[in-house]
Write a structure and sequence with these properties.
The structure is a single chain. This protein has a domain of 94 residues: Beta Barrel (Cathepsin D, subunit A, domain 1). It has an eight-stranded mixed beta sheet with strand order 7-8-9-3-10-2-1-11. A three-stranded antiparallel beta sheet has the order 4-5-6, with no helix packed on it. The two termini are 24 Å apart. With 148 residues, the protein is mostly beta strands. The relative contact order is 0.33. It is globular, with a radius of gyration of 15 Å. This is Retropepsin-like aspartic endopeptidase domain-containing protein.
Length: 148
């Protein structure tokens, strides 16, 4: 876990990289009301192999581009949890671990996937990731990429 001497300020929208997924310059909405971080995927399937559970995700190479090539990624499931939407509907989320890059620093992130095609941003950063690392200034955007 990366420990920062002081918390960096992030805006309401940030541009992030997910290098282990081969995804770069992804727009992420910062949502302090959401507990879990989530990435848009076209579809996913959960399967078991050699006694371990995995998630296979189908993700557009660049989620903001409707014509982007869809890539298949497979990760071991770190854990599963039931998440309630803002509408009160419960669903099981499959959490996996990967790396996220902000401010030229790599952090480990617990990430789930779901279809966010009806949402404005393909990724949402929840408070499990934000807490202890960042303060949010909702009047700003894209602070994590604008560093020298």
């Amino acid at each position: 876990m990366v420990v920062l001497k002081e918390k960096r300020i992030i805006g309401s929208i940030e541009t992030v990289d997910l290098p282990e997924l081969g995804l770069y310059n992804i727009y992420a909405k910062i949502d302090t009301g959401a507990e879990t971080s989530v990435l848009h995927c076209e579809d996913f399937e959960v399967f078991e192999k050699d006694g371990h559970r995995y998630i296979r995700c189908y993700i557009a190479g660049h989620p903001e581009d409707d014509n982007a090539e869809v890539v298949q990624l497979t990760f071991p499931i770190h854990r599963e949890r039931v998440v309630r939407s803002s509408f009160g509907q419960a669903e099981t989320r499959h959490i996996f671990l990967t790396k996220i890059k902000l401010f030229n620093t790599l952090f480990t992130i617990k990430l789930s996937v779901r279809d966010r095609s009806s949402m404005s941003y393909p990724m949402l950063l929840g408070r499990n990731f934000i807490s202890g690392k960042f303060l949010v200034d909702v009047s700003k955007k894209h602070l994590a990429k604008n560093i020298s």
